[in-house]
Amino acid sequence: MKIIKPAVLKSGDKVGLVAPASRPVSAAVLQRSVWLLEQTGLQAVVGKNVLSANGSFGASDQEKIDDIHAFVTDAQIKAVYCICGGYGTLRLLDKLDFALIKEHPKMFIGSDDATSLLIAIHKMTGLVTMHGPNLERLQTIESMHRARTALTKQHPDPLMVDEVRLEKPDKKDAAVVNVSTFAYAPVSAKAEGKILGGNLTALVSLMGTSFQPEFAETILLLEDIDERYDILDRWFSTLYVAGALGSTAAVALGKFENCHAKGEKNYLSLDDIFADRLIEIGKASCFNLPFGQSSQSKFVPIGIRAKIDTAKGRIEYLESAYEL
To answer: Choosing a second label site near 11 at 20 to 30 A (CA), which of 76, 107, 207, 304?
Structure first.
């Protein structure tokens, strides 16, 4: 399928805010998100049904679909940004009008449960989508300005582990080198492929459906939040058993925020659990990329080509994320 790229955002552009999964925690959180977004020179337009309540799902499925379709067809809306995560996005996919989205391509941004929305849109339309912190996770002007820079920059910056390495550090320099986060590569190698990924739980939920992505020759980035290691191993093993991991060009693991062992004192680390499979299949791989859901996470375009050096923990994009 031909790749379609959305237009890059510009100052003054209108951004439609949707909640395809759960409802925002409160009206105050929504108001804060709107205010912060507008401090960056963008205009926020809140979906009509964002604060509707239908049990734990927030608005009804149809109300969520109506909000998305309304923004897709509105020529003044230049991007659709998910406010929060939770659960419920998977229920929308068979109701989405992908032909409509393809006819009116624009930037879709989000993470967590919205991963299924981002991947399904790319699979069904070829549209490049943007994985990045949901709007409610950006709680400072500083973090919102970082988001604006990422969403208004024609060519994305490299994605790399936050570390400093000196070839020949002298004693003075060595004292200030920050290696609090360090790239760990179970299999050191270089590879090229199309960027694919997002929340591991949401991604696995697409397996066996018409929205299951093509894994062949991709650089697969995975992250998750608030999940037990044994559950994450189940999902990762699903990708392994299905042959998805083996068909990728490389696998890069991001931030697994607040993920934890079930309780056993000697439980393996997440690095150990995932690395076991990656080493077995000899897959180019690394851990600790700044990819995930926190306000510090980088925005990553799904669907463009890139190259990875797992030993360095570095991904460089080989093309623009947006229409030139």
So the answer is: 304
